[in-house]
Specification:
mainly alpha; single chain; CDP-OH_P_trans; 9 helices; Four Helix Bundle (Hemerythrin (Met), subunit A); about 70% helix; phospholipid biosynthesis; transmembrane helix; two-stranded antiparallel ribbon; about 240 residues; lipid metabolism
Length: about 240
């Protein structure tokens, strides 16, 4: 039996396991551990593809496993977090018990994106729409921003159901929007060919050092805006 061909799929299953554990932590409202488990899942999600290319064992099975694992780690978990945030928020939309389930619109948008990604041949070197891992990090950072911030304004924003609904709808939209976004993969080891990635990573590190969890949504928004600027001006 060729062990090497099973290594990427095993790594993908570890990603799925991390997502399952994150679901449990969200159910316990332990958002910090859920965030770390999703980060770990995203780490393994990167390396399953890396080893598949390294060992030249890419397969249709691996592609399907990757999407199914991402569906849990980067789809179900952020949707569940939004459900939980709706549940814990002030009831601007009323006390209808259906309202919190609107958070799972994030999961629906993630599912559609993952299915579309598998058949979209344009997304080999870059992305069309926000990748599900980036969106998951954005959503999972919100309750942590709320927990560790002393700002009353942030408290009012992230416990307002109308704002949570806007975030949910924007999340589902940006996942599937026809907006080209640059990838962080480095193919040529020259500064000129990677200046965009280097600038983004450098600013992201500074933001993380200064703002900690609060930096994550800022970084994701910055990533989208930088891609839009790059599309409109730098490639003319």
């Amino acid at each position: 039996m060729n062990i090497k061909k099973h290594i990427p799929n095993f790594i993908t299953l570890i990603n799925l396991f991390c997502g399952c554990v994150a679901v449990v932590f969200v159910s316990e409202q332990n958002y910090e551990m859920a965030f770390y488990m999703v980060c770990l899942g995203i780490f393994f999600d990167f390396f399953d593809g890396f080893f598949a290319r390294l060992f030249k064992v890419s397969s249709p099975l691996g592609l399907q496993l990757d999407s199914l694992a991402d569906m849990v780690t980067s789809g179900v978990v952020p949707g569940y977090v939004m459900f939980s945030m709706f549940t814990n928020s002030a009831h601007e939309l009323g006390t209808n018990p259906v309202i919190p389930f609107l958070g799972f619109i994030v999961t629906l948008g993630s599912c559609y994106r993952l299915a579309n990604f598998n058949i979209d041949t344009r997304q080999t070197d870059s992305f069309i729409g926000l990748p599900t891992p980036a969106n998951a990090l954005f959503i999972l950072s919100l309750p942590l921003v709320l927990k560790f911030s002393d700002s009353l304004m942030i408290l009012e924003i992230l416990t307002n159901q109308w704002i949570l609904l806007v975030i949910t709808l924007c999340s589902a939209y940006i996942l599937n929007a026809e907006i080209p976004l640059f990838a962080l993969k480095i193919k040529k080891f020259t500064f000129k060919d990677n200046v965009l990635q280097i600038v983004f990573l450098a600013i992201s590190i500074v933001l993380l050092l200064l703002l900690q969890f609060s930096a994550i949504p800022v970084i994701i928004i910055f990533y989208v805006l930088l891609s839009v600027i790059n599309n409109k001006f730098l490639k003319k």
